């Protein structure tokens, strides 16, 4: 068992790694080496890190197009991620996924989708498989607050509760769907509404609290493994960058910089500058290696186009 | 050999596959109820329990995505729909998620699942309970599409579909369920992507799909009695389409008629015609002809349905026209025996 300080350091390292990877993507973006649109995780990394802390590679996770953080936090290999963003043969999917469809099934990162809410039922199906196979595996299915407006969210919740399936529904609530605020979209209270399915609900107000997210996720996952039926968790968080792309958009008129400043106050990378400072060199080395791997990997060819359809 | 109707052949296949492989499970709206999807799923819930054969909420979208999640974890789901029209509620999952999942992951994630749906005419089914949707699915890379027409093929092709590591859309015409034929008792596979010659002939090639195979065989007998020998080919698998026997036949006959159980516009018949046109341009003696649904939504009343759907008579008249033969006297031939079996809602 790690002591609290070691544990915090490990979580911060992961958070920092994701942040710096995303910042490297921003740096590389004007060079046109990145071959797909990017939905950066900056600001939301602690949620992914906390949720994945107690997941084993056998526990599975489905997530969204804002998935770089989950890929890394779940244990996906960094060089293969960078090569995938470069669209190279050495990428985790050989350039066929890019940023929006990341998957690393060998570590339980099962898939991510560019169509909002579409992976929610995948988690429910995987949970049924875990139940039938008696594997005691837990499943997390991640979605944003916008996904809650889609019908498939409701269908999936109903079925999971009805069949007591070992799935943790996680609403990563950044209160934005592209450029539209939650208040402009929803006539109902998300949590009250979720409760009406008869599912246990938990809310984490500060998604920057790595320890809290980690502790709560561990407790909920343990309950799933023990056969306790599905759980529902909302983690509030904040996206610092534009919806898609490498830039800032506080001048666009749909939100203000002061919204972000509230979150910077609890951002672990600003809260623990000394710890971060110690880690910067190692993180940089890791990312440099990944970028070098991507740079050295060849582009796929016409023959690659035609493989993997079946 | 033992004779069985198509519904019982499908039921026997599901039973044998569930017994053979514990990762196979069968589910969908109404699957375990007393009617059991035209009898095809009767008894499975009792035999294999509610974990492997179960009903679902009215939630086609999530229940299709659910199949993908289960397949990624090593299961082999068979999701069943009593009307293919309801598949339109599943298209995001089938087209955006399931068909391309393996490709998007660079070949790291097989998606072995089957979507079974019942297509076609019944009694007063109207515009929302009658579609075939063949080309909706054959259009999409990564999907296999199967439409059997005999009990033997139904059983063997469904076994192959369940064992295949790709997503397969399996479309059964409801009237096929009462058609009887020889069906081996043991478990067997009929490989996907292999066409079958239903009747050899030298005058004209007739490619027919799903229920049109039944109509084509009926027409073929009547035509043979008047000295016209059509070669009838059932592709059985609509994607990938086994074109070689079709091309070989057209090279022999020089004439092609496609009788598709679907609309013609942008349909499977156009795809077959394009392929034959490209490969057999020099050997075709006349333009390719196509038969399919009228270019309207499906009407409800039987008198209009009889004009909407092609049948054996439509085939006979088209063949005669293509061969320059005068119309034969068809007085007394019954072309609507199946239609008349419906006396009320079934």
What does this structure look like?
The complex is a heterodimer of chains A (310) and B (346). By secondary structure, chain A is an alpha/beta fold. Chain A has twelve helices and eight strands. In chain A, helix 6 links the parallel strand 3 and strand 4 (167-173). In chain A, helix 1 (4-28) crosses helix 2 (45-52), helix 1 (4-28) packs across helix 11 and helix 2 runs parallel beside helix 8. Chain A is globular. Chain B starts with a strand and ends in a 23-residue tail after the last helix. Chain B contains twelve helices and 14 strands. The model of chain B has no long low-confidence stretch (mean pLDDT 96). The longest helix of chain B is centred in the N-terminal third of the chain and has 15 residues, at 6-20. Chain B has helices at 6-20, 44-48, 60-72, 91-98, 101-104, 134-138, 151-163, 211-225, 244-253, 268-279, 302-308, 312-323; strands at residues 3-5, 24-27, 53-54, 76-81, 113-119, 144-146, 167-173, 180-182, 196-199, 204-208, 230-234, 237-239, 256-259, 289-291. With 346 residues, chain B is α/β, with parallel strands linked by helices. In chain B, strand 2, helix 2 (44-48) and strand 3 form a beta-alpha-beta unit. Chain B is globular. The A-B interface holds A 60, 62, 91-97, 101, 103, 105-106, 110-111, 113, 115, 118-133, 137, 139, 151-152, 155-156, 158-159, 162, 307-310 and B 25, 51-52, 56-57, 59, 61-75, 77, 92-93, 96-97, 101-109, 141-142, 165-166.
């Amino acid at each position: 068992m790690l002591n609290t300080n070691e544990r915090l350091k490990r979580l911060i390292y992961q958070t920092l790694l994701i942040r710096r990877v995303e910042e490297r993507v921003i740096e590389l973006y004007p060079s046109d080496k990145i071959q797909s649109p990017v939905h950066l995780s900056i600001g939301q990394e602690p949620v992914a890190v906390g949720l994945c802390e107690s997941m084993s590679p056998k526990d599975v996770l489905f997530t969204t197009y804002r998935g770089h953080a989950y890929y890394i936090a779940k244990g996906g290999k960094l060089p293969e991620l960078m090569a995938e963003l470069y669209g190279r043969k050495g990428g985790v999917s050989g350039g066929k996924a890019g940023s929006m469809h990341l998957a690393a099934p060998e570590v339980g990162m099962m898939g991510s989708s560019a169509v909002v809410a579409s992976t929610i039922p995948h988690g429910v199906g995987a949970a049924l498989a875990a139940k039938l196979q008696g594997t005691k595996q837990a499943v997390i299915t991640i979605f944003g607050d916008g996904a809650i407006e889609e019908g498939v969210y409701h269908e999936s919740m109903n079925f999971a509760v009805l069949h007591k399936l070992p799935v943790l529904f996680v609403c990563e609530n950044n209160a934005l769907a592209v450029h539209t605020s939650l208040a402009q979209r929803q006539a109902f209270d998300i949590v009250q509404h979720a409760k009406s399915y008869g599912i246990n609900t938990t809310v984490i107000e500060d998604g920057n609290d790595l320890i809290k997210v980690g502790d709560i996720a561990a407790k909920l996952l343990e309950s799933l493994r023990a056969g306790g039926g599905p759980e529902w968790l909302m983690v509030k968080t904040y996206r610092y960058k534009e919806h898609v792309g490498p830039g800032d958009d506080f001048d666009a008129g749909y939100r203000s910089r002061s919204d972000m400043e509230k979150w910077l106050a609890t951002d672990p990378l600003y809260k623990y500058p000394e710890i971060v400072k110690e880690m910067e060199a190692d993180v940089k080395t890791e990312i440099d290696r990944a970028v070098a791997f991507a740079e050295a990997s060849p582009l796929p060819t016409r023959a690659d186009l035609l493989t993997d359809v079946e | 050999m033992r004779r069985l109707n198509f519904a019982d052949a499908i039921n026997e296949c599901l039973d044998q596959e569930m017994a053979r492989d514990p990762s196979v499970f069968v589910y969908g709206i109404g699957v375990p109820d007393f009617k059991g999807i035209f009898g095809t799923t009767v008894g499975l819930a009792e035999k294999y329990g509610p974990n492997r054969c179960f009903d679902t909420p009215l939630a086609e979208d999530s229940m299709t995505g659910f199949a993908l999640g289960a397949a990624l974890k090593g299961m082999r789901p068979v999701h069943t729909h009593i009307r293919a029209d309801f598949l339109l509620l599943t298209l995001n999952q089938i087209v955006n998620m399931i068909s391309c999942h393996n490709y998007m992951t660079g070949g790291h994630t097989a998606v072995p699942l089957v979507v079974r749906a019942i297509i076609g005419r019944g009694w007063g089914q109207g515009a929302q309970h009658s579609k075939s949707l063949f080309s909706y699915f054959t259009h999409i890379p990564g999907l296999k599409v199967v439409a059997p027409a005999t009990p033997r093929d139904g059983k063997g092709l469904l076994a192959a579909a369940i064992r295949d590591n790709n997503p397969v859309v399996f479309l059964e015409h409801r009237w096929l369920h009462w058609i009887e034929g020889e069906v081996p008792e043991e478990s067997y596979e009929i490989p996907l992507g292999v066409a079958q010659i239903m009747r050899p002939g030298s005058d004209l090639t007739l490619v027919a799909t799903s229920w049109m195979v039944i109509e084509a065989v009926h027409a073929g007998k009547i035509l043979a009695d008047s000295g016209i020998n059509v070669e009838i080919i059932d592709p059985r698998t609509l994607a990938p389409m086994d074109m070689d026997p079709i091309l070989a036949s057209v090279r022999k006959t020089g004439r092609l008629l496609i009788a598709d159980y679907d609309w013609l516009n942008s349909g499977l018949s156009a795809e077959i015609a394009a392929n034959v046109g490209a490969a057999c341009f020099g050997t075709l003696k006349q333009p390719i002809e196509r038969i399919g649904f009228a270019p309207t939504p499906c009407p409800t009343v039987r008198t209009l349905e009889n004009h909407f759907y092609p049948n054996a008579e439509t085939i006979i008249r088209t063949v005669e026209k293509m061969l320059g033969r005068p119309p034969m006297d068809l007085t007394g031939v019954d072309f609507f025996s199946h239609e008349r079996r419906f006396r009320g809602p079934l």
